[in-house]
Design goal:
51% helix; three-stranded mixed beta sheet; 11 helices; elongated; CBS-domain; 231 residues
């Protein structure tokens, strides 16, 4: 069993090293780069490698012990170590993407859409975030419950709460979270999505083919959707 673990470990490791050589090999004119050099270069471009850089280096150390004739008989890959490289192998070569975790049904409104229609959808679908598009089919803001609350409070104070003429544009003007969104390409990993939420302090990611506002929205990712992936 232990010998099988060693063989399995080397199989997973070789896949990882091949992946790095094919995708992240530095362009410095050398034929050969050590695994550690490949990891260092990959960490500049791949969010997952950057987060797990120390783990990759430990895996490299284990591979070195297994590969050297005078040391390999002293190294036994435990089940825990094998599980670790299996997980890393899967996350690196077959990462979960933004497209995988998106909410499939995305309801957006136009700037001229009535507030009554927005509230009706909240009541029936329990949605709380809606992309608002202009006449050019571009997203101009994210309408959230923050904007609706502010609009209702303002008009209640004025004694003029009437949904009849209110539009999505009216609500968006009062929404403190209207710019708290960003676009992300469908093939981005969940680690890239996590970085977007942290770095930009946003409420939602809108998934498109290439992360472009001109493209159709394929789905939406909220912080809750992302947290589900890291439980």
């Amino acid at each position: 069993m232990q010998e099988n673990n060693n063989e399995a470990f080397m199989g997973y490791f070789n896949d990882i090293e091949t992946f790095f050589n094919e995708k992240y090999k530095p362009d410095r004119g050398k034929q050969y780069y050590s695994f550690y050099e490949l990891v260092e270069n990959a960490s500049r471009y791949d969010r997952y490698v950057k987060l797990k850089k120390d783990t990759f280096q430990v895996l490299g150390d284990l591979r070195n012990f297994l590969s050297h004739g005078n040391q390999k008989d002293l190294v036994i890959i435990t089940d825990e170590s094998l599980d670790l490289i299996k997980e890393v192998h899967g996350q690196l070569l077959r990462p979960i993407t933004a497209f995988d975790i998106k909410t499939n049904e995305v309801k957006f409104f136009e700037e001229s859409s009535r507030l009554a229609a927005v509230l009706d959808l909240i009541r029936t679908k329990d949605y709380t975030k809606f992309p608002i598009k202009n006449k050019n089919n571009e997203v101009v803001g994210l309408l959230t419950d923050n904007g609706i609350t502010h609009w209702l409070a303002q008009h209640a104070e004025e004694g003029t709460v009437s949904l009849g003429e209110a539009t999505a544009s009216d609500i968006l003007a009062l929404d403190e979270n209207k710019n708290n969104f960003a676009f992300i390409k469908r093939e981005a990993t969940i680690y890239e999505a996590e970085a977007e939420f942290k770095d930009k302090n946003i409420e939602a990611l809108l998934v498109t083919q290439n992360g472009n506002n001109k493209e159709p929205i394929l789905g939406i990712i909220t912080r809750v959707d992302l947290l589900e992936q890291f439980k």
